[in-house]
Amino acid sequence: MCGRFTFIDIEDIRERFKAEPIHLKPNYNVAPTQNVPVINPAIGHKMINARTETVDDKPRCKHRLQRKRCLIVADGFYDRKKEGRTKRPYRITLKNKELFGFAGPWDTWKSPDGDIVNSCTIITTTHNELMAGIHDRMPVILSRDAERAWLDQSIVDAGYLKSLLVPYPAESMIAYEVSELVNSVKNNGPECLVPVGAKLF
Q: Residue 111's domain spans which residues?
C-alpha cells in the first residue's frame, strides 16, 4: 500500500521546497493515477513502486536513475499490517510532522489514446524497525542532504545514487492505526487521518 499517501498543507509545500504548487488541493488519500506534487529538476510528473534492489537493473531503469530523478512530496503515507485474515491500515509520518520527499524516477510516455503523460514512481526499500511491525517494505524517504544530492543532475554514479536509497531512521517516525476509510479513494477528507484506538508506535 506504499502507493497511498497524503499531502495536506499546500503552503508548507511552497515554503519547504520553494515551489509553486499550481492547481493543487489537499489530498488525504492519494492513489495511483492521481496528480501529485513532484519536485523535478528538469521541470517536469505507468509506474507506482520501484524496488531499490532493481532500480537500475535494466538500461531504461538505469537511465531514469541517472537522468530522471524527482521527489514526490508527502507528509505521511499509509500501509497495511496483516493481522490474521485482515489487513489494518496505518498512517506513518515523521515525528516532527514536517513534509518530506519520497525518492523516485519520473518518465514521460504516450497513453493508448495518444496523450502525453508525465508519471513518477515511489522507490521502496527494506523496512526499518518501526515498519517491521507493519510491512516488509517501505518507501524511500530522503534526508534533506540526500534530497539535494538526489536532485543534482550532475551526479550520475548509479552506485552512489543507490547508496542514498536507505530506510529512514525509525526513531524519527511514528505510525498509528486509521480506519478502513482509506481503503477507498472515494474517501478523501480529514477523517482519513483520525487514529483508531490507542495503537501508536
A: 5-200
